[in-house]
Amino acid sequence: MTEEFIKGMIEWFKAGKNLPRRYAWEVILGAYSHFVKEESLVDLELQEGVTCDVIGDVHGQFYDLLNLYSLTGTPTENHCLLMNGDLVDRGSWSIEVILTAFAYKWLYPTRMFINRGNHEAKDMNRTYGFEGEAKHKHGEQTYKLFAHVFTTLPLATLVSATKAPTKTSTTTILSPKGLKRYFVVHGGLFSKDGVTLDEVRKIPRIGRQPGQDGLMCAHLFPFQLLWTDPQTLPGRGPSKRGVGIAFGPDITKKWCSLNGITCIIRSHEVRQDGYAVEHDGLCTTVFSAPNYVDQVGNKGAFIRIDAEGEQKYFQFEATPHPPMKPMAYAQGGLASLMM
């Protein structure tokens, strides 16, 4: 894999062409060869001079992804990208999005990171478009390959500073080493207290589909972290999605204190400004699909973290795209926006 190949592939996609199946399989398997070596919780330490951009849901909005990459820059020795799940479904260029991300993972395995989202799952792909799109563009066997490779995606990433922070407050939670660190996960926390980072790290994920263990596993450990949402009320409550749970600011503070986490960075929900700082600064939502499904009118955003653990927020607007409606390959047309 080379930068030249990726640039040529992107131009091929912009011209409305499908990548030949042989090359698509090579890209998928190239990324897979790195995912299977990673633990369910990936450790990413930011050395001096290195930054990491955390990207939220993209949902098959390929032209917005290209604009986003022009703002973040592509992975380099001193710059990481961390895509926090839900790369596919909804938008009608999910294949182009996932192949581009996987190509960068293959080329830059220690600088391109991809967490699993709740939409990297068979049940969701069947309903929200990716299964139909993958079969249409590359055939059923290619979809089955994607479905397995999605199970190898890590479930979370621990982004750790390596330099002592110059900006803290009396409420800042630091690691045992006195450094800032961020738990980056698609959804959020669990239905029980006391879950440790080591427990997340050891979750057996490969080959597992959430649907095998209940209602999309939204109410069961270990896949809760792909589905849960923050709420303003303390404690835990039912999710507004109708499945799973929501967790309050007291739950977030208790968990961050237990594990020495400065902030949970999660995605999974539209935010009108592209991001929202919640739970007294201990939980931040970032969403990177602007004008979600061509209807919502929201901005997209990403978060840049440096070696001191300082965060900067960047917003961007939607980019024009060819006349293809969202959910073009979905069963039954446009479905609920809530999931």
As laid out across the biggest beta sheet, the strand order is 1-5-6-10-12-11
What is the mean predicted local confidence, pLDDT? 93
Structural class by SSE content: alpha/beta
Order of helices and strands: HHEEHEHEHHHEEHEEEHEEEEE
Q: How many extended strands? A: 14
Give the overall shape, derived from the CA principal axes: globular
Distance between the termini: 35 Å
How many alpha or pi helices?
9
Strand content: 15-25%
Helix content: 25-40%
- Report the biggest beta sheet as strand number plus sense, adding barrel if it closes: 6 strands, mixed
Low-confidence stretches: 212-217, 334-338
Structural features, described:
The chain is an alpha/beta fold and 339 residues long. Helix content is 28%, strand content 19%. The strands form three sheets. A six-stranded mixed β-sheet has the order 1-5-6-10-12-11. Helix 2 packs across helix 4, helix 2 packs parallel to helix 7 and helix 6 crosses helix 7. The longest helix is centred in the N-terminal third of the chain and has 15 residues. The C terminus is likely disordered.
